[in-house]
Amino acid sequence: MILLTIILAGASYIEAPLKAQAAADEAYVWNKAVTGGGGGFVPGIIFNSSEPDLIYARTDIGGAYRWNPVDNSWVQLLDWMGFEEWGKTGVDALATDPVDPDRLYLAVGTYTNSWDPHNGSILRSTDRGETWESTSLPFKVGGNMPGRSMGERLVIDPNKNSTLYFGARSGNGLWRSVDYGATWSKVTTFLNPGTYVEDPSNEYQSDIIGLAWIAFDPSTGAANQATQSIYVGVVDKNESVYHSSDGGASWSAVPGQPTGYLPHHGVISDNGHLFISYSNGAGPYDGTKGQVWKMNLSTGIWTNISPVSSTSDDNYYGYGGLAVDAQHPNTIMVATLNSWWPDAIIFRSTDGGSTWTRIWDWNGYPDRTLRYTQDISAAPWLTFGTNPVPPEITPKLGWMIGDLEIDPFNSNRMMYGTGATIYGTSNLTDWDQGKKINLSVMAKGIEETAVIDLISPPSGAHLISGLGDVTGFRHDDLTQAPAKMMTHPNSTTDIDYAELDPSYIVRVGTADKSADPNAKSIGYSRDGGSNWYAGNSEPSGTAGGGKVALSASGDSLVWSTSDKGVFYSKNNGNSWTASTGVPAGAKITSDRVNSNKFYAWSAGKFYSSTNGGASFIQTSATGLPIEGDLDFKAMPGVEGDIWLAGGNATSGIYGLWHSTDSGTTFSKLSNVQEANVIGFGKAAPGGSYMALYTSAKIDGIRGIFRSNDGGASWVRINDDQHQYASTNSAITGDPRIYGRVYIGTNGLGIVYGDALSEPNPGVNPAISPTTAVFDKKLGNQANIPVSMTLNGNTLSKITNGTVALVQGTNYTVSGSTITILSSYLAAQPLGTVNLTFQFSAGATKVLSVNVIDTTSTTSGNIQVQMYNSSVISNVNTISPRIKLTNTSTNAINLSDVKLRYYYTIDGEKPQNFFCDWSQVGSSNVTGSFVKMTTAKPGADYYAEFGFTSGAGSLATGQSIDLQIRLSKSDWTNYNQSDDYSFNPAASAYQDSPKLTGYIRGQLVWGVEP
């Protein structure tokens, strides 16, 4: 073999990176918000050929994973990748050693164009990815470039495992290592580096894709002796298959090979055949024709075994994923790379490709006969919120099926990657018996989303995400897959909520006008992100995208579109008017206290509006970043308090700035060298100013940092094994959980961290609980114990308003536990009783007791549970969330049921009723408003909810949900703090005796005011 005279020896050992020496470190526990399905493209799945259950998956931007057979999950191997090395989470090829299964290799680098300034690397591990060493390459690697599901480009000689080959992109040819990947040399006798370019006029598609795959014929070598027969697939439509019969010393094009197509995968079977799947595009998203061929390695004879002839109109796709059953080498499978309509197709042959069966067949258009069942319970959102017209169905088998593999040790197990997840089956051979195979999501542990934006409102779900490809989710439980993704619009570029009405959320994206000319690029949720509806209008001619900001109370919207400038709306997006004084493309945000104030940044200049975004004025602020990353937010609870992070090293303007005068002036924090994003979370115990979170460089160390004192000091809260590469898209703390931070990554999912311990709260005492419920009904009455954390203080007294409670009569004391006696609470009026604990020093603490009386509540008919989506006092929408359950032994006609929600109208106006969602259909839920003849405490109106006959009946034990909104016609506020049915203490469904229920006019649940 003729080698380059310069050998690459730039290896570095990265098992134990240098420990960060920032001002302080704090231990955190780190997890990923679970999607259950991954959320991104999986271009490669690689089974080790000598050890069962040793399986790896590579992703285009989201690192690499190892299968954990203990719980059938995947373990991420590259969470340790640092901020500056973000490109190394793009994995273009992966090799697992068939001789020494502990050895693992990755070819990493995300882009071969200008988007990634760094060359690629070969990572190598001797412990299955627990620790790594790295060798830099003299060229770029393209894990997220065209042709990324071809493969594998990186392979190990199955006879002499110290030898590896790598097929490069960009015209760099074939490379070889003879020392377990430590150093690499170019194979200069391999003369075809590939010619195919997708689109020379487009930077992303203008690079030579290069070499596609490398395959060894193990029978031509022996243990510790190099394999002699090697095949290479080149991305070239004229000559694409090359062969060496002398261990890689010389190469020549294989005679008689197919032309006019690109070889996607090449697999050598144990019975001496080379199988190749072809497409006329490199994939993973293109290709309109394809073929499948096999070559007899002994005779050199090529046979076209395409499941559908390329001359047929039924062939409108290329072929991608290709698998040969190691135990039955005449059994092969191939997948369409990009059959978008009506679905992907997987083909199977048990006779070497002579005949094929399909995973689905036509059965009289538009009907189809399916040879599979599909279970997406692990990630229910994979329906993509669609309701397609047959022959399309949801969920689909997938799209961009660039890799499909059969377990070499288990002919029943097959996995394949798609644009959003991994599907697989464990009963594959049932296909051959005319039975259905059972497909299910096999992506547990894979979190591959690219995060666009994150919000953590002060009520409702703790996290709502905007994501690339899969739009985003309301995360009701971070440890469980969301039930559905957000739609209307079906993409997300920005998201915001009304600080004082957090159930009101707005989101912008880019609507697909070609699929639906009436689609809008802006959507709204009135129930904290559970359901979304499309806007009625948008600025004329816009393609959408950009940034959006919602005023503190939700009465004004500002949208900085991607293409048409900045616009504002005062009527919930029903019409839009161009804002003045602010440049097109400006980044925007709202003040979180003053609903009239909005802020904007563009090219180093800062702007403010005091009229709801109608007009902006440039402030006198100077010294701000003019380019690079830019993220700024206004602090909740403090008018005019703004934090701005951004810049880049090239411009020299980079860091974190703070303004306390609505952006008129900014001060740069001297202790922060670089910062890319900024977020706020709950203040530390004893503090009043929210905690700050940032991805930044502080004291020369890159990391995730938190400040509890307004930026005066910082602690690094991540560590060198939890760096997550690119963390410059989004960050937010949780306003309800101290120490909780949510971090957006580019392909490694949503990361969240929790502090392992709380800081010393100093002199401030605390009580637990701070809310409770007391029922006056005999038999339900109970004392309420309250635990105090005194921190060196003593309890002075407990008061109810101005009246002090009497120890021994109203409460008792035992150590640090106070017991509020039921005899005292039974004498209090219905409603909220606030008991204030006063101490010798520190802040007072309040126990809010909701006093109820369920004496007149009957059982055996219905149960009514409720919580309020928004629990702040002043809201323009009352949003009860109701669960109705039939507790009787017979079905109940819903048309016989009425529910009443009591409240004060706070200013007589016509009112509107909305049912956003119910299992019985929103149109089958009715609502009316009744002004009470005699006002009662907490109620001068009630809203009565009922059902049409179309709602049907409620079976014994069955429940339905009602997501209701009430508003005034002019959207002015209610003060719900004193409303009879309002429950500020509930964040999930609980019995609601103050929301009354009736059957055929008879009160069967609750207590009327």
Number of strands: 82
Gross morphology: globular
Structural class: mainly beta
Which residues sit in consecutive blocks of at least 5 with pLDDT less than 50? 1-22, 856-860
> Count of helical segments?
1
The helix content is under 10%
**C-alpha termini separation:** 92 Å
Beta-strand content: 35-45%
**Main beta sheet strand tally, sense and closure:** 5 strands, antiparallel
Q: Spatial order of the strands in the main sheet?
A: 1-10-9-8-7
Mean pLDDT rating? 93
Would you write up a description of this structure?
There is one protein chain. This protein has 1009 residues and is mostly beta strands. It has one helix and 82 strands. Strand 27 (360-362) and strand 28 form a beta hairpin. 50% of the residues are buried. Mean pLDDT is 93; it is low at 1-22 and 856-860.
Gist of the model:
It is built from one helix and 82 strands.
List the main descriptive attributes of the protein structure presented here.
mainly beta, disordered N terminus, 0% helix, 1009 residues, 1 helix, five-stranded mixed beta sheet
Topology:
Layout: E1 11-13, E2 28-32, E3 44-47, E4 55-58, E5 64-68, E6 73-76, E7 91-96, E8 104-108, E9 121-125, E10 133-136, E11 154-156, E12 164-167, E13 174-177, E14 185-186, E15 211-216, E16 230-234, E17 241-244, E18 252-253, E19 262-268, E20 273-279, E21 290-296, E22 302-304, E23 319-324, E24 332-336, E25 346-349, E26 357-358, E27 360-362, E28 368-370, E29 372-375, E30 404-406, E31 414-417, E32 422-425, E33 437-441, E34 451-455, E35 463-467, E36 474-475, E37 494-498, E38 501-508, E39 522-525, E40 533-534, E41 547-550, E42 557-560, E43 566-569, E44 577-578, E45 587-590, E46 598-602, E47 605-609, E48 617-618, E49 629-634, E50 642-647, E51 654-659, E52 667-668, E53 674-681, E54 691-698, E55 701-707, E56 715-716, E57 730-733, E58 741-744, E59 750-755, E60 766-768, E61 771-775, E62 784-789, E63 795-800, E64 803-804, E65 811-814, E66 817-820, H1 822-825, E67 831-839, E68 845-852, E69 862-868, E70 874-875, E71 880-886, E72 892-893, E73 897-903, E74 911-918, E75 925-936, E76 939-947, E77 953-954, E78 959-968, E79 974-975, ...
Parallel strand pairs: 29-33, 61-68
Antiparallel strand pairs: 1-10, 2-59, 3-4, 4-5, 5-6, 7-8, 8-9, 9-10, 11-12, 12-13, 13-14, 15-16, 16-17, 17-18, 19-20, 20-21, 21-22, 23-24, 24-25, 25-26, 27-28, 30-31, 31-32, 32-33, 34-35, 35-36, 37-38, 38-39, 39-40, 41-42, 42-43, 43-44, 45-46, 46-47, 47-48, 49-50, 50-51, 51-52, 53-54, 54-55, ...
